[in-house]
Write a structure and sequence with these properties.
CATH topology: Rossmann fold
CATH architecture: 3-Layer(aba) Sandwich
Strand order of the largest sheet: 6-7-8-3-9-10
CATH class: Alpha Beta
CATH superfamily: P-loop containing nucleotide triphosphate hydrolases
Radius of gyration: 17 Å
Number of strands: 10
Number of domains: 1
Largest sheet: 6 strands, mixed
Oligomer: single chain
Length: 242
């Protein structure tokens, strides 16, 4: 469940988010759309405390973030494992293989054995369509393949919520369609070995892509959600409120 109440954020004297109120159920696909400077990327980064906000509350993946409160390091670690982030820049380790990129956090952060981490990682790599590229390094992959590795890595950490910042910005039309299908599969639970649906929050400037994903579209303008739209085919299962 995602629930946001009265969230306000500013940089110095400049207000960025002016009182966000919205909610969506577990397993929802939420697209944040709006012009540059509308606050959508800032709101996305509030979900896992990469940005701290002044007032309001944000509930996500069983965590409650409060304005003006800095979570302790142990809570931040648990939050960021449960609420994974796929950055525009992706931040894959260039010297590591696909398999090693996906297994690094489970081994180092969660202290899982190499055998267990690799078994789970190979399942995920297969699920995102890269089973034959497990030994490749990022420089040997296309932009769309790198995106898939970044998604697999976030899921491997145990993410229940996946945040994606402009996942189609560097992709051509055919690869955008592939990304849409992959994210829809994640929302149906097809990327997790236990079949658990992921909640997705996707920042995009491409309204057509957001509409193609289905789910909820939150439109941000000047730091406010001015519209909350639902895909008619999924209206009963993807409620949202702006």
């Amino acid at each position: 469940m995602i629930r946001i109440r009265g969230l306000r954020k500013q940089y110095g004297e400049r207000p960025v988010l002016l009182g966000i109120d919205a909610e969506a159920p577990e397993g929802a696909i939420v697209s944040l759309v709006g012009a540059s400077g509308s606050g959508k990327s800032t709101l996305l980064r509030c979900f896992n405390a990469l940005e701290r906000f002044e007032t309001g509350t944000l509930e996500v993946a069983g965590f409650t973030l409060e304005g003006g409160r800095v979570p302790p390091p142990s809570e931040l670690m648990r939050l960021r494992a449960a609420v994974g982030m796929v950055f525009q820049e992706l931040h894959l380790f260039p010297h590591l293989t696909v398999l090693d990129n996906v297994t690094l956090a489970p081994r180092v952060v969660h202290k899982r054995s190499r055998a267990e981490s690799e078994r789970h990682a190979r399942e995920l790599i297969e699920l995102v369509g890269l089973g034959e590229r497990a030994a490749a390094r990022p420089r040997e992959l296309s932009g769309g393949q790198k995106q898939r590795v970044a998604i697999a890595r976030a899921v491997a950490q145990g993410a229940r919520v996946l945040l994606l910042d402009e996942p189609t910005s560097a992709l051509d039309a055919s690869l955008r369609d592939d990304m849409r299908v992959l994210l829809q599969r994640a929302g149906r639970g097809e990327l997790t070995p236990d079949g658990r649906p992921l909640t997705l929050v996707v920042v995009t400037h491409d309204r057509a892509f957001a509409q193609g994903l289905g789910g909820v579209i939150w439109t941000l303008e000047h730091g406010r959600i001015t519209a909350s739209e639902r895909d008619p085919a999924r209206a009963d299962e993807q409620p949202g409120r702006g």
